[in-house]
Amino acid sequence: MMKRATAQWQPTEAVLPGLDLHYLEAGAGHPVVLLHGWAAFKEIWWGTLRAIEPRYHGIAPEWPGHGRSRPLERVRLIDLAHLVVHACDVLRLERITVVGHSMGGRVAALLALLHPDLVARLVLVDAALDPAHIAPFGRRMLELRDIERTIALSRRLGHGLGRLLRPAPHDHRGGLIRPFLRRAYYTALANPQMLHQYAMGLYEESLDDRLAEITQPTLVLSGERDPLVLPRQARRAAELIPNARLHLIPRALHTPMDDRPAAFHRALLDFLDSVPPAQAASVTADAAAAL
Q1: Which of 8, 25, 130, 147 has the highest CB neighbour number within 10 Å of its CB?
Q2: CA–CA separation, 196 vs 228, rounded Å?
Q3: Are 71 and 65 in contact (CB under 8 A)?
Q4: Which residues, in sequence order, are CB contacts of 222 under 8 Å at separation 6+?
């Protein structure tokens, strides 16, 4: 793994052997694995990696079919959970805190349920846990044609307007327009067939009836004005998960680490610094089969 020569801070970028799965990495100490959402990218965690680097070892993988990670022929959301487990084996991470955003939050919850021996703490950020709490316009993700249109629009915005308005750099102070243009640039790189499979997985079933089984200390974070995964989802999850705390970030939308990074990082670090990881536990075969 090599760092690019630059005067500005940046994490290490590397590829997991045999998987062609790209990831960013920074810091040392207790490992914090950061899972991005649908049509997003590993660099969405750039500022978070920098914020936690002084005290934690941050790892931000990029899902297949996103950014520079190659697509797979077929994938389910539970396969992404298995992929994280494999990545932890390769990187020799034994006990981790998992931070998952949107679709990544769904995968993080699956990891906590399936692998309590691996997951010590859980942070759910605008997590898509139950399709009943996804805004109606989200169903456009279920149509491949609409996904292709979204990617085409993102290409015009991120590659076109981005040249005129200058999208935000990876390490920025938040806002709406420039961070949005940055996200649009990376959305245009995603594989539409992969996005369609991921979207179908989000709507196939709910994790609502399994949340009470999550035993790890959990922080449920949500943008106060999230228009996609409605904040009622966060409130519901915080009610159902036994050892959970809820934090709504004022004026933030669906990507609080990008909209309001300072407030997001304060909430995240307060949780990481003040809540000790849970002791290791083993998942039963019956519980694994239920998922």
Answers
A1: 147
A2: 17
A3: yes
A4: 125, 126, 229, 231, 233, 234, 246, 247, 248, 249, 252, 256
pLDDT given at position 8: 86
Q: How many helices (H) and strands (E) does the chain have?
A: 11, 8
Q: Kindly write down the DSSP assignment for every residue of 163-183, as one continuous string.
A: HHH-PPPSS----SHHHHHHH
* Cα 37 to Cα 29: distance, rounded to the nearest angstrom: 25
| Per-residue pLDDT at 6 | 44
Weakly modelled stretches of the chain, pLDDT under 70? 1-7, 162, 280-291
Q: Hey, what amino acid is at 239?
A: E
Residue 218, pLDDT score: 98
| Residue 269, CB-side half-sphere exposure with 13 Å CA sphere | 18
Backbone φ and ψ of 213, nearest 5°: -85, -10
What distance in Å separates the CA atoms of residue 157 and residue 205, rounded to the nearest whole number?
A: 33
- What is the spatial distance between Cα 99 and Cα 124, in angstroms, rounded to a whole number? 6
Predicted TM-score (pTM) of the model is 0.93
Rounded Cα distance, 75 and 70, in Å? 12
Tell me which residue of 81, 135, 152, 105 sits closest to 257, measured CA to CA: 105
What is residue 284's predicted lDDT score, i.e. its pLDDT? 42
Residue in 213, 218, 251 with CA at minimum distance from that of residue 234: 218
Asked if 71 and 193 count as a contact pair (C-beta separation under 8 A), the reply is yes
Find, among 121, 120, 123, 119, the residue nearest to 105 by Cα: 123
Which residues are CB-neighbours of 117 under 8 A, at least 6 positions away?
280, 281, 282, 283
Work out whether strand 218-223 and strand 96-101 pair parallel, antiparallel, or are unpaired: unpaired
